[in-house]
Design brief:
The complex is a heterodimer of chains A (419) and B (141). Chain A is α/β, with parallel strands linked by helices. In chain A, the strands form four sheets. Chain A has a four-stranded parallel sheet with strand order 6-5-8-9, with helices on both faces. In chain A, strand 8, helix 7 and strand 9 form a beta-alpha-beta unit. Chain A is globular and about 75 Å long. In chain A, helix 3 packs across helix 8. Chain A folds into three domains: 64 residues, 2-Layer Sandwich (Alpha-Beta Plaits), CATH 3.30.70; 276 residues, no CATH class; 62 residues, Electron transport complex subunit B, putative Fe-S cluster (3-methyladenine DNA Glycosylase II, Chain A, domain 3), CATH 1.10.15.40. The longest helix of chain A is centred in the N-terminal third of the chain and has 18 residues. Chain B is of the alpha+beta class. Chain B has one domain: Histidine kinase-like ATPase, C-terminal domain (Heat Shock Protein 90, 2-Layer Sandwich). In chain B, helix 1 runs antiparallel to helix 2 and helix 2 packs antiparallel against helix 5. Chain B starts with 5 loop residues before the first strand and ends with a strand. Classes of the chains: A alpha/beta (419), B alpha+beta (141). The interface between A and B is medium-sized, with 22 and 25 residues. The complex binds adenosine-5'-triphosphate, iron/sulfur cluster (2 copies) and magnesium ion (MG). Magnesium ion (MG) binds next to helix 2 of chain B.
């Protein structure tokens, strides 16, 4: 995808950015450079993990999402709260309160994304049984991980679980139901995800795995939280009940999705570095005996999403507490009357070739040997002063013609060391 | 350095299990950057990794030399370890002399050499007991 066509995941507040290189060092894909004293994001390499937002002490990095007011553009408004959203509240005893509260702040209907999670678990069990995907089957629910695989681990694309994300499943179902119920046209119905992360914002707006986006907007969990909180205490007799069991809500935390496939041979890793280590092992055939691999870019899973409010470990404990009173599961493919195909990707997401040095192998070889030659002149400190995260990344930028070697302020260090 | 390719040399540390596999990891990342087909990248990485690990486990370390040319990836793994007395036997699936503590770490299934053969296009082993071993792998591009 070209730079223009990529939607932005995170943006920079130019005035607040001090060019301190913290985000650049943190970015797992090397998508950030500091140029002319300001961080610059190369969106074609960005997977939307939000790590740079988390690490920026100057609050210059912001996750992109839609303003709450866009819901007003639709006649009938449906909220799709992420499973992790329910873990954000203190002393919440009744999950129905959140549903009732969302209705008070402007939504006509609420459909929990955890319903889609339970349906996805059911579909996953069937896909595993079909045996159509190469094992170990890798979860695709975290779009940051999916993007990472499409960017860096091309040989693992045959292991990808070809199912829609839970939010896409409920978006589809909710719109269909609303059309039937209200008689309104599809475009009068606004479907909004309440998202824990910029990765989901990006995935839903670009339509990852689907023909065209299934939601009309993606709201930030934090923004909705602050609108909802004052309303909660005004709710007197709550008649709303959650339509999900514990398996669905468990998706809020790392390991929740894997638990739903009802098999023992699985791995659930969370945190982007840990996930990258697992992906590396998968590439080297070291995890061939596994059935399923769940990977979440955020520490703790989606409760760790950068748009959430609560500390992920506290949120996790709250979800656990809430889940105690719930049945195992309330949704299955039969209960919604659909075929397995309904839950599958409409299109296979394409791999991203941006890390390749050149389309032509001979040119790529030449570039690589030029990079190696430049590396010999650099001090190998990965200090970041030049505005690139590593000396190697800097050497690549030089070969690409983006910068000049004179930006390296510490070349003398290398010359001294070589004496 | 060759003008029409890339040349790499690695010292493979026999003491350090934790860093085992760094040479093949570097080559894997290089091949990805060069834009080679994912299957070629993976075959090369696995074959080289197995050879690298063998030097760590069975030979106390060694060297890895890799040349990437327009037509192939050529890997030489050389050590001064105990050598292999019966190469044909060592090549057999399931044959391993790895001690119990190594098996506990998940190695020693006796699959390394046969996988190296499977994933490479050409493989040659030269070995002399108490002198050392030299494994040559070639993966065509
Ligand atoms: N570089 C080497 N030096 C000495 N002996 C070796 C070397 N490489 C392999 N061998 C011998 O060949 C045997 C078979 O090697 P192979 O790689 O197939 O299996 P393994 O290393 O024992 O187990 P695995 O590779 O499945 O973890 C080894 O157990 C060892 O006896
Ligand atoms: S969101 Fe993640 S991938 Fe994107 S620039 Fe920030 S740290 Fe890098
Ligand atoms: S783990 Fe969840 S919250 Fe974090 S990036 Fe992935 S989908 Fe978003
Ligand atoms: Mg071996």
């Amino acid at each position: 995808m070209s730079q223009e066509k990529r939607l932005h995941t995170v943006t920079l507040d130019q005035d607040k950015c001090k060019g301190c290189v913290a985000c650049m060092r943190r970015c797992p894909t090397g998508a950030i450079r500091v140029r002319d004293g300001k961080a610059k994001i190369y969106y074609d390499k960005c997977i939307g993990c939000g790590e740079c937002v988390r690490v920026c002490h100057h609050h210059a990095k912001k996750a992109v999402y839609d303003s709450f007011d866009i819901i007003k553009n639709y006649k009938y408004k449906i909220a799709l709260p992420a499973p992790s959203f329910f873990g954000q509240f203190n002393n919440l005893e009744n999950l129905g309160l959140i549903i009732a509260g969302l209705k008070r702040i402007g939504f006509d209907e609420v459909m929990e994304v955890s319903i889609g999670a339970e349906l996805s678990s059911d579909a996953t069990r069937r896909v595993l049984k079909e045996g159509t995907i190469k094992k170990p089957v890798i979860s695709t629910a975290c779009p940051a991980i999916l993007q990472l695989i499409l960017l860096k681990y091309h040989s693992l694309t045959e292991n990808l679980l070809n199912l829609l994300a839970p939010v896409d499943i409920v978006a589809k179902l909710a719109r269909e139901n609303a059309i039937k119920k209200t008689g309104l046209k599809a475009e009068d119905i606004g479907v909004f995800f309440i998202s824990p992360c910029p990765a989901k914002v990006f995935a839903l707006k670009s339509g990852l795995g689907v023909e065209k986006p299934l939601v009309d907007g993606v709201l930030a969990a934090s923004e909705v939280y602050f609108k909802l909180l004052p309303e909660l205490k005004n709710i007197k007799d709550c008649t709303e009940v959650a339509s999900t069991g514990l398996l669905g809500f468990a998706w809020a935390c790392s390991g929740g999705e894997a638990a739903g496939i009802m098999k023992d041979k699985y791995i659930a890793a969370d945190g982007i570095e840990n996930c990258m280590n697992v992906l590396k092992e998968l590439e080297d055939n070291k995890l061939d005996h596994m059935d399923f691999v769940e990977l979440n870019a955020c520490i703790g899973g989606c409760v760790g999403g950068v748009l959430n409010i609560e500390n992920p470990f506290v949120a996790r404990s709250k979800i656990r507490e809430l889940n105690k009173s719930l049945p195992l599961s309330k949704n299955s493919i039969e209960s919604v009357g659909k075929e397995l195909d309904y839950f599958k990707w409409e299109t296979n997401p394409e791999t991203n070739d941006v890390l390749r040095l050149d389309e032509d192998f001979m040119v790529a070889l030449k570039k690589m040997s030029d990079i190696d030659a430049i590396m010999k002149q650099l001090p190998g400190l990965d200090c970041g002063n030049c505005g690139a995260p590593t000396c190697r990344a800097f050497a690549e930028d030089i070969v690409d013609g983006a910068v000049d070697i004179s930006l390296c302020t510490r070349k003398e260090t290398n010359e001294n060391n070589n004496k | 350095m060759q003008s029409d390719g890339l040349h790499f040399e690695f010292a493979v540390d026999g003491e350090n299990f934790a860093s085992a596999g760094t040479a093949s990891e570097t080559i894997k990342n290089t091949l990805k950057k060069l834009g080679l087909p994912p299957a070629t990248v993976r075959r090369t990485a696995i074959a080289m990794y197995e050879g690298e690990i063998n030097m760590v486990i069975h030979a106390g370390g060694g060297t890895a030399v890799v040349d990437i040319t327009p037509t192939a990836i050529e890997i030489e793994l050389k050590d001064e370890g105990p050598g292999i007395a019966d190469i044909e036997l060592a090549m057999r699936e399931g044959y391993s002399t790895a001690p119990e503590e190594i098996r506990m770490l998940g190695f020693g299934a006796g699959m390394g050499l046969s996988n190296m053969k499977k994933y490479s296009d050409e493989m040659k082993i030269e070995s002399e007991v108490s002198k050392g071993t030299r494994v040559l792998l070639k993966i065509n591009i």
